[in-house]
Amino acid sequence: SAAAFLTPEGENAVVAAHLAYLQAGAQMLLTNTYGCTQEMLAKRGHEAQQRAWIGRACALAQTAVAQHARDATSAEPIVVGGSLPPLGVSYRPDLAHDDATMRAEYAVMVDALVVGGVDVLVCETMASVREARVAVDVARTQGQGTPVWVAVTLADTLDAGTGEATLRSGEPLAALVEAVGDAVDVLLVNCCRPDVATTALRTLRTLTPMPLGVYANRFACVPCGWTLDSQGSTLERRTDLDPEQYAAYAREWLALGAVVVGGGCGIGPGHIA
C-alpha cells in the first residue's frame, strides 16, 4: 500500500478510497501508513522515505475529509486516526522485533503522525500483549497528548479449553487489559473473524468499563506460519459475509456496548454503508 506514494495516480487512488468510505457514512479514517514501516519499505529500497510518506498519508486523509466536507450535507466532524501497525509480519507475534527496536521505530512513526496532524493514534493489529504494550507506551509518551487507541488481532478459533477468544499469541484478553487498560482511550479487536470478535467483546465487557470497539476482517482464516513474502495476498476471502451479514454482526456489537464499529481487510464501502 505504501507504493501508492510513488505516483500521483497512486495518491489519487488513496484519496478516492477514503472518499468512498466517507460517502458510505464513515465517521473515521485511518491513514495509509500500515505499510510505512522500515521493514516493509526496505524490501523495495524506500526506507529513507518513511517520514515523508507518513506525512503524505496524513495529508491525503485530510484532503479527503476536506473534499467530503465541501460535498456533504452533514457537518459531522471526521476523525483521522494515525495507523501504527506491527513492525514485523502481521499476525505473527513470534516474528515481532525486540522491545528496543520497536520503541525506536514507533517513536519515529508517532512523531511523523503527530506532525501530520492526526486526531488519534491507533496501535492496530497487535498480535501479542508485548506488541500492544510497547506500541501503546511509545504512543502515550511521545504522542504529545494525542488520544491513543489499541486494536488487537485475535486467533481464528476459540481456546479449546476455555472457549474464550485469545490474541494470536494465545494470550488471554485479561492479560491485555491488565497491561494496557489504563494507558488507552479505546480498546478494540480488529482484523479477525467477526464471530470471534463477538465472543471477545462479551469477555472484554466483563473485564473493563472502558470504551470498546470492533473492526473485523473478511478472511476465512490466516494459516499457521503465514507471511506476506511467502504467501502474499492469497488469504482466502469469505463468500458468506456480504454487507447485510456484516451489519448483523455490527448490530450485535452495538448491543454488547461497542462504541466504535468499522471494517478491516476485505470490508468495503458497501459493508460500511
Question: What's the helix and strand layout?
Answer:
Elements: H1 8-23, E1 28-30, H2 38-42, H3 50-71, E2 79-84, H4 99-115, E3 120-126, H5 129-142, E4 148-152, H6 173-180, E5 186-190, H7 194-207, E6 212-216, H8 228-231, H9 243-255, E7 260-263, H10 269-272
Parallel strand pairs: 1-2, 2-3, 3-4, 4-5, 5-6, 6-7
**Strand adjacency order, main sheet:** 1-2-3-4-5-6-7
Strand proportion, as a percent range, falls in 5-15%
Taken from the alpha-carbon principal axes, the silhouette is: globular
With helices defined by DSSP (H or I, 4 residues minimum), what is the helix count? Answer: 10
- Return the average pLDDT rounded to an integer: 95
Report the count of strand segments: 7
How many strands, what sense, and barrel or not for the largest sheet? 7 strands, parallel
The helix content is 40-55%
- The whole-angstrom Rg is 18 Å
What pattern of helices and strands is seen along the backbone?
HEHHEHEHEHEHEHHEH
Low-confidence stretches: none
Distance between the termini: 23 Å
Structural class by secondary-structure content: alpha/beta
List key phrases describing it.
single chain; 273 residues; alpha/beta; seven-stranded parallel sheet; 10 helices; 7 strands; 43% helix; 13% strand
